[in-house]
Amino acid sequence: MNEGFRFMCLFLIVTVFFGAQTPYTQAQSTHVFTEGLAIQNQHRYGREVIFTDPLAYQLANGTLQTPSENGKISPSSEDTWQVVRTDENGRFRGRLRAGYLYLTYESPKKQTALLRMSGASMCYVNGVPRGGDIYGDGWLYLPVQLEKGKNEILGRFTGLWSGISAELILDASPVLLKTADATLPDIVLGQPGNDRLIGAVVVVNATSKTITDGKMEVILNGTVANSSLPSIPPMSIRKVGFDINATSVSAKGEYTATLNLHLGNKKTDSQQITLFGREATEHYKQTFISEIDGSVQYYGVAPQVGGSKAGSALFLSVHGAGVEAIGQARAYKPKTWGTLVAPTNRRPRGFNWEDWGRIDAMEVLAIAEKKYLPNPSKIYLTGHSMGGHGTWYLGATFAGKWAAIAPCAGYPTLMGYGSADGKIPEDTDHPTEKLLLRASNPSNVIQLAKNYTAAGVYIHHGDSDRVVSVDYARQMRQILGEFHADFSYYEYPGGSHWFGDESVDWKPLFDYFEWHETPHDTLVHRVEFSTANTAVSSKSRWVHILQQAEPLNYSRTNLSRSLTAQTISGSTENILHLGLETSSFATGVEITLSLDNQPEITWKNDGSGMLYLKNSAGKWEISEAPNLSDKGTARNGTFKEPFNNRMVYVYGTSGNKAENDWAFNKARFDAEMWYYRGNGAVDIISDREFDLAKHGDRGIIVYGNADSNRAWNTLLAHSPIQVSRNRIALGSDVMEGADLGAYFMVPRADNPSLGVAVISGTGLAGLHAANANQYFAGGSGFPDYVVFSADLPINGVDAIKATGFYTNDWSLPERK
Q1: How far apart are CA 716 and CA 569, in angstroms?
Q2: Domain 175-280: assigned CATH number
Q3: Digit-coded pLDDT (tens) for 504-548
């Protein structure tokens, strides 16, 4: 049965069932779109600030002509709008790429509806940006406001042949639950904590008011758990977490739980979810609250045979694109000598194990270390396809953490392979774009390859792989062969991209793991380590790169020590502050340092455990630890960094109506994209609601400028970049006009580790130019600040007016 047809049948069955059984869901009518106009070759989005999209440009400045058959977006365009119709399965298909689908709906009245547009990367509804279901999952329903008369929908697509379906659900309940994208735990029999399991489902708020009094009642086997829900802004969705009490479940099997959504004392909707009781010997799912954003996430587990034992091994396995974490875990038979955990990357496609995928993987690893108490010297990393890339990336980024790594069918970099979001450009001759691309340096594991010397490496790849060519494995074999003394390589004869569970659960691979343990730092006397961002990766063994001379350029060390001769010697590159652990040396001895062919330095080991060095004017000298408020290991910049810490979106309401509408719409759009791409949940509040005492321990995202957002002076009075109507000031440099946009971050003045990210503009043209949303693409490079004109979608890099990285004290560098 065709996948699209199967989905439509399932949707109708679910609608009929709950319509008949649940008094909280009123009768619905559905308008299915069957005809529209499509145009191709209109945009180029990738993993960088620069993009091309003339339609978005015209939509932003009000010059877009109503699409018509054979019409063009611009006179120079070779492509025209063409009529497209759905096939027998209700999907628009065709050999079109990088374009837009235009749909209209004549509404007899002003009303709200739920829009489901499956297969589009994002859409505009009457000019307002809304989230997209790029992978065609089919569970994204967005509340939209329909005007009386003609309503216009533009869906941006990358390839129409995979199909787009679109429908409007009319007369739906104003507040309802959607369970198709539930995040749910398994009930592991006999495991502690079954009285406080957590799950998450989507609440749709199709009203004009913020939901502030929501509660979730969960009934499982007669046992009840109640949870208060976070606020949900008007005309928006949010995935909300809730408690589950599973103490009444004592046998393996399938269980139905009832979810009752209450607003105040009124039951608004009721739905059912399915949970599974599992034996501790089976593969199972565990949920947890993520520190990234406070949302509910899960990981899969392949349990150790006979139960987990303290001091055993721990395997972290990162999945491929489109693979669920529990599916990844189930590809492995349980091992006698350790437990395997599989994090999610926040979604089956997620972030390519970069950015928030990286944080998710290490968050799950930390949870598993605390739960299963493995031997720290027996922690291993592996993964397949996109997870093979994740293995290369995490293996290089966290050098010294792994006893051995094993990329399977993996590609090393997003520069070389890419994915649905495209490739990171490898290089450019344009100095501005070169500066922009520097923000992606942490992704380039080729430049970090010497970090692999800290662990054993086993490369596993089918020699007939047509998805990820075996040439990538051969490339890495050649690179490692130049310096690595301990790696193994195997091409599976006739192996395709996936040739059964042996694609990952390969006995020689796990034999290789079992032969390897991480040596204690006291036994490692040579460290070759590189990083491009100290807030992402700063330590290998006893060497700490604490501060870079040039942010986001590669910083390197090649250091050796002798405990008997009491010396440390070697070379460094692009390091301002260096930390060397000295606890392996006897207290009171004189340690001689010979760095970068400079005169020797002697230091008496004071027993503190750490020696700090600073490079002043090209000369190393003994120093104190770097200032925690400066750039360093806790906070090193890039625009995306504040999105890591339970971010809160603060939209402006002190501007004119158009500015205020933009701020709310953009914040909601970002929240929808974060939910879709990262299974995330985020607080969206107005500047009137913002309270530094309440929100001060979080990353803060500001939408608007000094004139339109009341939180500006509280958060950004100290910022070297100031934006107001018709004016941007970068220090003493001033740019004027209503057509400037900006992405930038600044450190929080009241907190040494948190920051504020700002999406801003000097007028509506500049604000709308900031609507592009590729900063949630994994590995995409956004420096500390970027200022651009509104013609960025048509003029590319030439529209960048200023960009770069702050100095280590967070001041602007001198403009050249």
Answers
A1: 44
A2: 2.60.40.10
A3: 999 999 999 999 999 999 999 999 999 999 999 999 999 999 999
> Contact 787/801 with Cβ under 8 angstroms?
yes
CATH annotation of 641-804 = 3.30.379
Q: Which CATH code is given to the segment(s) 281-517?
A: 3.40.50.1820
112 bridge partner residues: 145
Q: What's this model's pTM, rounded to 2 decimal places?
A: 0.94
Q: Which two tokens stand for residue 393?
A: 């990336």
Provide CB contacts within 8 A for 78, sequence distance 6+. 41
CA atoms of 188 and 194, how far apart (whole Å): 8
Confirm if 532 and 396 have CB atoms less than 8 A apart.
no
- Residues whose CB is less than 8 angstroms from the CB of residue 255 and which lie 6 or more positions away in sequence, other chains included: 187, 220, 221, 249, 274, 275, 276, 277
* pLDDT for the residue 27: 58
| DSSP class per residue in 248-303 | T--SSEEEEEEEEEEETTEEEEEEEEEEEEE-TTS-EEEEEE-TTTS-EEEEEEEP
Sign of CA dihedral 598, 599, 600, 606: negative
Q: What pLDDT is recorded for position 21?
A: 34
Contact 539, 400 (CB under 8 A): yes
Question: Which string of DSSP letters, residue by residue, matches 607-619?
Answer: SSSEEEEEEETTE
Q: Tell me how far the alpha carbon of residue 276 is from its chain's centroid.
A: 29
Q: What is the CA radius of gyration of the chain?
A: 27
Kindly list the domain boundaries of the chain, sorted by start residue: 3-172, 175-280, 281-517, 521-548+552-622, 641-804
Instruction: Please tell me the distance from the alpha carbon of residue 140 to that of residue 467, in angstroms, as a whole number.
Output: 28
C-alpha to C-alpha distance for 706 and 719, rounded to whole angstroms? 11
The two tokens of residue 296 are: 């509910």
> How far is it, in rounded angstroms, from Cα 755 to Cα 632?
13
Q: Which residues pair with 721 in a beta bridge?
A: 730
Structural contact between residues 232 and 210, judged by C-beta atoms closer than 8 angstroms: yes
Residue 12 CB: number of other CB atoms within 10 A?
Answer: 11
- Sheet of 35-39, strands arranged across: 82-85, 35-39, 97-107, 149-159, 122-125, 128-130
Cα separation of 716 and 74, whole Å? Answer: 40
213 phi, psi to nearest 5 deg: -120, 30
Residue with structure tokens 């790429």? 97
Cross-strand pairs, 169: 30, 114
Contact 422, 779 (CB under 8 A): no
pLDDT at 816: 64
The b-or-e profile of 111-128 (16+ CB within 10 A means b, else e) is ebbbbbbbbbbbbbbeeb
What amino acid is encoded at 705 in this protein? Answer: N
Of 384, 165, 375, 183, the residue nearest 295 (C-alpha): 183
Give the Cα separation of 342 and 690 in Å (integer): 37
3-state helix, strand, coil in the chain (%, to 5): 20, 35, 45
Low-confidence ranges of the chain (pLDDT < 70): 1-27, 816
Interior angle at CA 769, CA 767 and CA 770, nearest 5: 65
